[in-house]
Amino acid sequence: KQKLLLDVDTGIDDALGILLAANDSSTELVGITTVNGNVSLKQATTNTLNVLALTDVRAPVVQGAASPLLRAPHFEKAVHGENGLGGALADSEPAMLPTPGFAPDFIISQASRFPGELTLVMTGPLTNLALALQKCPELPRLIQNVVYMGGAAFTYGNITPTAEYNMFVDPEAARIVLQAGFESLTQIGLDVTRKALLYKEHIDSLGDSPVKAFIQECTAHYMTRYEMRNGIAACALHDPLAVAYAIRPELCETSLLHTDVETTSRLCDGQTICDVQNRLGEEPNVHVALTLETDAFLSYFLTTIQHGSR
Ligand code: BDR
Ligand code: CA
Fold first, then answer.
1. Is 5:31 a contact under the CB 8 Å cutoff?
2. Is 27 in the pocket of ligand 1 (CB under 6 A)?
3. CA of 253 to the centre of ligand 2 (A)
4. Looking at CB atoms within 10 Å, which of 196, 279, 286, 309 has the fewest?
5. 76 lines ligand 1 (CB under 6 A)
6. Please, how many CA atoms are within 13 Å of residue 195, restricted to the half-sphere of its CB?
7. Which of 165, 191, 225, 243 to probe ligand 1 with, by most ligand atoms within 8 A of CB?
8. Residue 272: per-residue pLDDT
9. Where does the record place the Inosine/uridine-preferring nucleoside hydrolase domain (predicted)?
10. Three-class SS state of 3
């Protein structure tokens, strides 16, 4: 079975990504690490434990960085709600505890335990992986694939005019990851995730279950907000698409491009630069996703998300 390790800042779409990864029985979820991002580290961890409890999977959940490498946290409560899940599960005390440890160390230990077998799916700011690389520079040789949700190659940002949120929150960490020399590093950015839209009718089509009730509740808030900005009442499945791509790479076509991230600009911090014509003459380092098989993705997402759910 393909071994996945998720790194999340559990917000609404991270939660849907966790449900997807946990419910796809073709993969083994070897752990989930949490990071500050949409919400605080503590809240992201609580949300992760509560969402995982909606599935049959009991993977370890390990906490990581409480702030970006150099910058102050930048929560996204306007999009994800006060608790990060649009109010869903707000009163639930997690039935499980986080596993003791620190996410960067856990990433290193799982990579060492399964050398060449692990796929990392990163759906928050890249702080934990950057810290792991600082501690263990040979980490790229131990990891099979890294897929991150973040960046925008040929489209506008979603937190500033040019930057995507995960890159914007910790661009210094993103640069460490981009320059680490991973054999296979894929960017699932806004170019494709804005095409991965979940509508209310999709949710209504699910069979009744606690998972359906959860998805209905947590996406309602997000859809209202997305409509204000984008004119469409939908939930962009940013993070679930990164999970889906890690399991089914045929869903996106990618182009191998030298990719960097801006860290010293008043207007463009966090912007990803994907060098299409190799103007910089640098080695290509990232498989940048450019197309999406939208129907195939949505049907995979909707059929898988309920398997094994409580
Ligand atoms: C990304 O930002 C976060 O708010 C979402 O959870 C997703 O990971 C989209 O830009
Ligand atoms: Ca996220």
1. yes
2. no
3. 22
4. 279
5. yes
6. 18
7. 165
8. 98
9. 5-298
10. strand
The residue among 81, 238, 36 whose CA lies nearest residue 155 is: 238
Helix or strand (DSSP H, E) at 53: none
What gap in Å lies between CA 33 and CA 14, rounded to an integer? 12
Atom of ligand 1 nearest to the CA of 123: 8
pLDDT in tens, the chain (310 residues): 999 999 999 999 999 999 999 999 999 999 999 999 999 999 999 999 999 999 999 999 999 999 999 999 999 999 999 999 999 999 999 889 999 999 999 999 999 999 999 999 999 999 999 999 999 999 999 999 999 999 999 999 999 999 999 999 999 999 999 999 999 999 999 999 999 999 999 999 999 999 999 999 999 989 999 999 999 999 999 999 999 999 999 999 999 999 999 999 999 999 999 999 999 999 999 999 999 999 999 999 999 998 755 4
305 pocket-lining for ligand 1 (C-beta < 6 Å): no
Residue 262 CB less than 6 A away from ligand 1:
no
Name the residue of 18, 159, 225, 238 to mutate for ligand 1: max ligand atoms within 8 A of Cβ.
238
Q: Which atom of ligand 1 is nearest to the CA of 158?
A: 10
pLDDT confidence of residue 188: 99
CA of 150 to the centre of ligand 2 (A): 9
pTM for the full predicted model: 0.98
Catalytic positions, written as ranges: 238
Ligand 1 binding pocket includes 36 (Cβ within 6 Å): no
Residue nearest to atom 5 of ligand 1 (CA): 13
Cα(130)–Cα(180) distance, rounded to whole angstroms?
A: 9
User: Which SS3 state, helix, strand or coil, does residue 5 take?
Assistant: strand
